[in-house]
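An example makes the point: we let one protein speak, the chain in one-letter code, the fold tokenised, and here it is:
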Amino acid sequence: MPHLITAYSTDLEAERVTTLENDYIISNYISHEFQEFDRMGWSRKWFDYRHMTLLQATHKYMEVYGDIYRRIFAREFDRERAEHIRPLNFDTILGALRPDGQTDNKKVTKAKKQLVGCWRGRQVADMLGCPYDVYIDLAFTYRMRRWKQNNMPQPLHLYHEYDVEKIADRWEELQAGRLYLAEHSAYLVQNYRDLPQQNDYHEWLFKQAKLRSNPAEFVARFIEEDLLPIDKVKTRTDLPEWEMIERYLQ
């Protein structure tokens, strides 16, 4: 797998799931087909997740799934009950799947189903380059339009091909109306080390600027916010374009 930004992982992230546990879960519960999907999707995934192990990223997906699940449950079913619902418990799932936790076959089966459902949904979001909150919100939105059940969609319901096509199209539309930026400190100019994911992020920023009516203004903003190295911008622009950018620089 490509180089990870391990230098920027926080202590909390390191404590969440060890690399050994990540490898154990993958080797025992994730099919070779899905493992290959992760290898293909790494360079496409949203930038804030590229330093995470696959299990950490799936944990993040579960957390976001829970937040959006409660919000939609409150809107569609019961606002008071929604506050107390916890559709997924990462620690419980992992506990059932660990070598010393396999005492109840039903619990193991349920935990594997939940894990794989979230793993697969997270993979699709990664292949689309979509932040998990955007992907899950759209997946719920499109799924609920055809949902005839009295309960909420589960993780395995959020990556139907019909819905994913709509999500992909909508994700492209959303980028033109809202600016999506990475939050991880690895993408600040002062931390630039010419890593592939950092260079990919710069390309993302150039793309986002071009989607706006005044690209020069946004490129200048990215420079001022320490998101784009000024030297890289100069090499990517001709003199008239650079002069336009300079007008917006303080």
The chain has 13 helices and no strands. Residues 1-16 have pLDDT under 50 and may be disordered. The radius of gyration is 20 Å.
